[in-house]
Structure prediction request, 159 residues.
Amino acid sequence: MLNIFNKLEPIIFKKLLIISWMWWWVIAFFTDLFGALKHMGVINYSWAFDGNYPFLAQSLAMYHVPSWLPVVLFIGIILWSLLSAVMFIYACCGLNQSAIIWKKRASWAFIISLLFWFAFFLGDQVVMKFDLEENHMVQGAMEFISYLSLFLLPDVIKE
Prediction:
């Protein structure tokens, strides 16, 4: 049993981080997609969370924005989540290739999704939802730490 621990290297941890973020982004995408479909009345499943779009619309109401703006922004959120998920899937598809390939793919996935968090930080500031901004900052910081670990941690433990 202890032999398995002798074979574990930090590179395995790095690959597991990428796989974990891939699943996180896939789930985030489908959560918002099914929430949008439920909000539009296309589906009526009890497990579909329909809170993000109404929250966005309510948050923007203080500025008396046109009714189409929350729709466009939410579609942008869904598409950006999809892009992030696809990029992490693409990175995962390269995990059995050389480190230069999967690290480059992972780097792009992290950059695209981290920019998504920065867009949320700005949006939270504009609508003055500081409790939500704190939540987004924690999620974004966790992803940024994961990104840094790809390049700051060694791939192998030297004896």
Q: What stands out?
A: Helices lie at 2-7, 10-39, 52-60, 68-93, 99-126, 130-152. The chain has one domain: 9-41+50-152. Residues 10-39 form the longest helix (30 residues). Residues 57 and 67 are 8 Å apart (CA to CA).
